[in-house]
Amino acid sequence: MPYRTKKKPPAKAVAPDGTFAMGETTDRLLTPGEVAHIFGVDPKTVNRWSLTGKIPSIRTPSGQRRYRQSDINQLISTDRG
Amino acid sequence: MPYRTKKKPPAKAVAPDGTFAMGETTDRLLTPGEVAHIFGVDPKTVNRWSLTGKIPSIRTPSGQRRYRQSDINQLISTDRG
DNA sequence: GGTTAATTGGGTAATTTGGGGC
DNA sequence: GTTGTCCAAATTACCCAATTAA
Q1: Are the CB atoms for B55 and B46 separated by under 8 Å?
Q2: What's the CA B80/C1' C22 distance, rounded, in angstroms?
Q3: pLDDT in the model for residue A4
Q4: CATH number at residue B61
């Protein structure tokens, strides 16, 4: 999967009729490559972060890792040090 | 994770945050696209999982696959490693 | 009926994984 | 202690057109 940055349409999670747009909502899962692109590191480094408990990860039934966008956003904080 | 749709899914089964309503839609069958969204993969990958025996699937009379929520829930687990 | 979106199957390219060593 | 790279095997993504579902 290439490091594709797909633009998200205006996030409209739940419509008035109770329906919602699939796949474009708040908590989509990111691939290691996407997270790596965000932080500017190697995908393997991202996996190391999950190994050391720095990022929670979800496994596909075949063992690949996926990361919650909310978890990633939590790590992105402006640093003044 | 190229699965995206601008229209409403068949019904509200899995909320954008990944949760679901227990008392209401527990036994509803999920489409490949919905399961794909949960795991952050392509719908075809989900079908591949059923072909390799990782997920039991149910077929519509026309041959399309559907998945039980209970089967999917069993596979979801946060991973530390 | 008619429109739109999702699913399916096949083929091929790209990504991910784990280990090892720098 | 952390990160980047090389490797082979496994897994997944994207392409297409036809079928099915809503």
Answers
A1: yes
A2: 27
A3: 34
A4: 1.10.1660.10
| pTM of the full structure | 0.75
**Which pLDDT score, from 0 to 100, does residue A71 have?**
93
Q: What is the edge-to-edge ordering of all strands in the sheet holding A29-30?
A: A29-30, A65-68, A57-59, B78-79
Please give the protein residue whose CA is closest to the C1' of the nucleotide C7. Answer: B64
Contact predicate B57/B67, CB 8 Å:
yes
Q: Considering only CA atoms, which residue is closest to the C1' of nucleotide C13?
A: A1
The count of structural domains within chain B is: 1
Instruction: Tally the residues of chain B.
Output: 81
Q: Which nucleotides of C are covered by protein (CB under 7 A)?
A: 4-11, 14-20
Domain span holding position B65: 29-80
pLDDT tops 80 at residue B76: yes
